[in-house]
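Researcher: Can you fold this with flavin-adenine dinucleotide in place?
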Amino acid sequence: MNKRTFLKLCSAAVSSRILSPIIAWSSGNRLTNWAGNFEYSTAKQHSANSVKDIQEFVRKQTKFKVLGTRHCFNKIADSTSEFLSLKGMDRPVALDPDARTVTIESGMTYGQLCPYLDNQGWALHNLASLPHISVAGACSTATHGSGEKNGNLPTAVSALEMVNAAGEIVQLSRSGDGEMFRAAVVGLGALGVITKITLNIQPRFTMKQYVYEDLPLSELKDHFDAIESAAYSVSLFTDWQRNRINEVWLKIRMQDKPEFNGPAEFFGAKRATKNLHPIADLSAENCTEQMGVPGTWYERLPHFRMGFTPSAGKELQSEYFVPRKNAVDAILAVERLRDQVGPHLLISEIRTIAADDLWMSPCHNQPSVSIHFTWKQDWPAVRRLLPLIERELEFFRVRPHWGKLFTISPATLHARYERLPQFVEMCQKYDPHGKFRNEFLNTNIFRTKSMA
Ligand SMILES: Cc1cc2nc3c(=O)[nH]c(=O)nc-3n(C[C@H](O)[C@H](O)[C@H](O)COP(=O)(O)OP(=O)(O)OC[C@H]3O[C@@H](n4cnc5c(N)ncnc54)[C@H](O)[C@@H]3O)c2cc1C
């Protein structure tokens, strides 16, 4: 990239209200997010190995952010001062078979947790498309998988421990702390440093995954509910071209549908004859096993395998949640933008998520459908497109994914999260001087630039 292009990107970024993905300059001490589209404002990192370490660090700092596995595409995790890494705190703390819970240190990733649980005979209810992300980072941004009866990943949290801005330990549980707990689970990194998380678990289960190609859009329109209820988790991948869903991924829990053997046809789509990547041109080697081969839950629920690059790598992502009842209308609204979207898109994914009671979850009180976009890494083009998509979906009071790229205004966000004023009060209680705040939070949640 020449200097002129870089300066142009910078000025576009500065004029953006919410984010500034800058193409990463790959060398030296620079610290970028996973996709490399964004360079953090500092590369200074402190690693903590115990809760005591964390408390000491928190007491000394006036401003910092916890960094998870860096998989967000926007500036939600950014810090201009210093990062706290909990990578070294990645152990299970307790598994309680009677309570059906596991407690872990918060630096642990799903890729570390799932084999541990499976070995002990246990499972989580759902997973995202990839296991590489930290449990704390994923829950803080309301990360989700698919399945109309499955809440997003933070709905599995039953208790958490965090260190507040004064360096004090705070413990919150679903059974004991009601409102405060529901505020804190999807906390956007604004309430404190999460040190331990307790998750609900269930006995391990076996799954099969089938992929179907070329589902006509007319079938989706007429049979959306039947398609979505056909499996424990359903993902629809489309490039919005040629009136079709390119790939339908059905993840079947064998105990739910022991008789399901992947018929040759599914609502006009044809069963794939080999493993596929959601982006058809890419190798399926990176993907979890398909073709109806039985396997354990954590090797079927994500699309991508641990130890391999998930998705495309060099990409951008956006995702929007609409009420489930508006699913078909919202999908058709995006399809109308196919000519504008097509040239910049790698693939889109449509998923369903059950309603929850977590204040800052995009699925708060609302069974939802999410429409996701994996974009080519061309921020100026994507930045022009997002407002078009957001306008098409405005009628459905669309909410964006907290960890992905969007241009919805802070005022609109506030209008769409009824508990946001109370969330701000809760943040003021745990962090009165804005130690955990950054530009993203100040702009979108606190609506002030002054504390950045
Ligand atoms: C290839 C790819 C695929 C993806 N697939 C999905 C998907 O299927 N579904 C979906 O919903 N999302 C998906 N995402 C988005 C991803 O799940 C979220 O961005 C998630 O937040 C990533 O977790 P992280 O640990 O990398 O978070 P980071 O980006 O490191 O941090 C996110 C936020 O969490 C905070 N945080 C992290 N740890 C702590 C802690 N211990 N205490 C307090 N705050 C903390 C950070 O400060 C920051 O605010 C995908 C992203 C990529 C790159």
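Model: Folded with flavin-adenine dinucleotide in place. The radius of gyration is 21 Å.
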